[in-house]
Amino acid sequence: MFTKNASEALNLAAYSLGPLLKLGPGDEIVVSVLEHHSNIVPWQLLCERTGARLRWYDVTDAGRLDLDKAEAEGLINERTRIVSLAWVSNTLGTVNPVAALAAAAHAVGALVVVDASQAVPHLPVDVTALGADLLAFTGHKMVGPTGIGVLWGRYDLLETMPPFLGGGEMIEVVRMEGSTFARPPARFEAGTPPIAEAVGLGAAVDYLSGIGMDRIAAHEHAITAYALDRLLALDGVSVLGPREAVDRGGAISFTVTSADGFEVHPHDVMQLLDSRGVAVRGGHHCARPLHHRLGIQASSRASSYLYTTPAEIDALADALVYARDFFGGIRR
Questions:
Q1: Which of 3, 7, 127, 155 is a plausible cystine mate for 38, CB 3.0–4.6 Å?
Q2: In whole angstroms, what separates CA 263 from the centre of its chain?
């Protein structure tokens, strides 16, 4: 189904699965603390509507899901109805073991929703092998246009899900006494679709497929390893999350501490780097609970992709040294 972004796709999943599963008090939905807000808030709203309980995987100090703690707490159990997880963290770059977690969820009869926004553009994807029941991603992270996202789902599941939005094109027959609805995917695509955006997304898919997702993944692995080596060697720069390029994506978040020992605000880091032609993001990256869990206010994030070169990583490292030293003489 086409949506306007991954956020809408995940909201569609949450809205439709609630009545389908007849969620109520005693039922549990499981997410993780490293999720993008788009994979937290829709489930919070669903719990508010139904009385279900939201639970979550914690993370270790190394930025990976704390599977031992989850097992000790019995996080996945007979009350679990939905497990919704990011495949790759948009902040830490952590690649979560979604296939194994999906198997555990299915073993207790739970449905599995995957936020693949950071995975589909970067990795070969086989939804069947992954074990996803529903999977969301977005166009603008894969050299496509903004304004379009996708929700993939098992057809037998989609046939049983009620619609998310009502309007033209998603109906079978409309009567004043009530309406019947089209079969998927049309059931979930009310109104005029994002036609131009879908054409653009198709072109992006063709472009990435032409390069080869295996080649893109190999390039990103190499550039991420190089970036980690460069950043970890810098005094005053602390990398968040996994510190080696194993089960790790290309997003690298970090904090900067000046020579006189105070943390430089990520917005100041971002502005100084921008002045040297280096683009990073500063803030929560739509992952405030994760930053709270890690005990930091915010972070800066550098994101590589298929076009990132070692020279650009060198420029990032040099600019970080400049920013660190620039703020070195400032006192609180």
A1: 7
A2: 27
List, as one string, the DSSP characters of 293-329: HHT-S-EEEEE--TT--HHHHHHHHHHHHHHHHHTTT
Distance CA 79, CA 182 (A): 32
The pLDDT, as a whole number, for residue 332 is 40
Active site members: 286
Domain chopping of the chain, boundaries: 2-207, 213-326
For the segment 141-180, what is each residue's pLDDT rounded down to a tens digit?
999 999 999 999 999 999 999 999 999 999 999 999 999 9
Residue 262: what pLDDT?
A: 85
CA distances for 29 relative to 11, 160, 254, angstroms: 14, 19, 30
Three-class DSSP category at 139: coil
Question: 213-326: what CATH class?
Answer: alpha beta
Is beta strand 149-153 parallel, antiparallel or unpaired with respect to 134-138? antiparallel
Predicted structure pTM score: 0.96
- Residue 278 CA: distances (Å) to CA of 78, 247, 257: 49, 26, 19
| Per CATH, domain 2-207 is 3.40.640.10 | yes
How far is it, in rounded angstroms, from Cα 5 to Cα 8? Answer: 6
Residue 331's pLDDT is 45
Structure tokens at 223: 């550039």
Six-digit token string for 115: 């936020």
pLDDT 10s digits, 188-216 = 999 999 999 999 999 999 999 999 999 99
Over residues 53-77, the mean pLDDT reads 97
